[in-house]
Amino acid sequence: EIRLVYWDKVAKNLDSNKPFVGALVEAEGVVSVYKEKVQVKINRSDKIKLLDASPPKTPGIHEGNVSRISVISKSMAGKTVTLRGKLGEPSSIKSGVVFPLSDGSGTIKMVLWDRKVPGNERDGLSKGTKVLVSGEITDYKGDLEIIPANAQSIRIEEGSGQ
Q1: Which of 5, 39, 41, 105 could crosslink 68 through cysteines, CB 3.0-4.6 Å?
Q2: Half-sphere exposure of residue 119, counting CA atoms within 13 Å on the CB side?
Q3: Nearest Cα to Cα of residue 47 among 9, 87, 21
Q4: The whole model's pTM is what?
């Protein structure tokens, strides 16, 4: 697995050739390292070709193993976990919003990027909402975060007062 990176000028010319999670692609670009991860930067839209355009499996809730926030550690960065908790006061960030998520054992930042969970899909979320969320654990500037892949990775639970 390797990360493919391209900017808006490339993306707007991809049309039906736009890659998606789970797609098999062929790509040509410049190999580099960003934040200790190898990536391939694509500079032209004709350098990406979809080889298999089967629809991806949509990431969603992984209910089988709900973790307590207190057990989440920096060593889990890059892993996908499922947490249950109550949302705190949201704060806006460039290209998204952050909710503190607490479960009585601890608190973690739940980062909702606009490109993954657009504003209209966040409408049911507010302070006090109880959620079940699956997402990737990241360590950003020493703070642990959970980042859901899409809106289907967040479920509002009963008794949220919503």
Answers
A1: 105
A2: 5
A3: 9
A4: 0.63
